[in-house]
Amino acid sequence: MLGSGPVLIAGAGALGSVVGGLLARAGWPVTLLGRRAHLDVVGSRGLLIEGLFGTHRVTGLSCVVSRVIFGAEVAEPGRARVTVYADPVLIGSPDPFDTRRRDAAVAWAADLTAAGIPAESSETIVAELWAKLLYSAALNPLGALLGLSYGALAADADTRTIMDAVIEEAFAVAWADGVTLRWGAAEDYREEFYRRLVPATAAHRSSMLQDLERGRPTEIEAINGWVAARAAAHGVPAPVNATLTRLLRARARLPATEARWSR
Fold first, then answer.
1. Is the pTM of the predicted complex or chain greater than 0.85?
2. For a 10 Å CB count at each end of the chain, is N or C smaller?
3. Does residue 70 have an active-site annotation?
């Protein structure tokens, strides 16, 4: 049985990477599905596993990334609720010329759709992930810090100005990274953002806010923190993204009682 069938690790964070990497080392054909920043390195340099299970460098892993733009929450134990939906889940390979992974993305998109989760395959998944990043970087940290819904953020002149700046900075970083987006300029994206994307998710509360309320780590480092880091690497200014990252770090360090009083 060992290595006899393909294995997909859906959600290749720390635990998923260890499981998938060690299975691949044992001979299984493994595909990792996860975040672009992590899988870009895995695809180019291999996966380094270290610690109590030994030190291993695993290469030859297939990597697939997906863009998810619907939201869900665990309303109570044993009950999950989809709270917002803007666009289908997109599945694709970072390398559009990799026909094996491209075919896998097509198959998984069809299977997800058949299961009731709207999904499509994409040959421009890197650009689409940047589009998701633009959306999340603008809305999530402010929603978490202020306790406001996405619609309320867009309706306020001051928070709207901050979101405009976040998008402008992230757009400049994408161009510096050599990513061709669907929009010619940041103002073109902002027009769609306020006209279509925010209204479709106006009642949604930031997932970062939900993480803070539950005492869980937020994704700030993978969103605004990542924009700020890439900006620094390219010598592109991104002070608003960097400041929001610092504010979320500070907010996460507040004791629960002080956090309640802050709202």
1. no
2. N
3. no
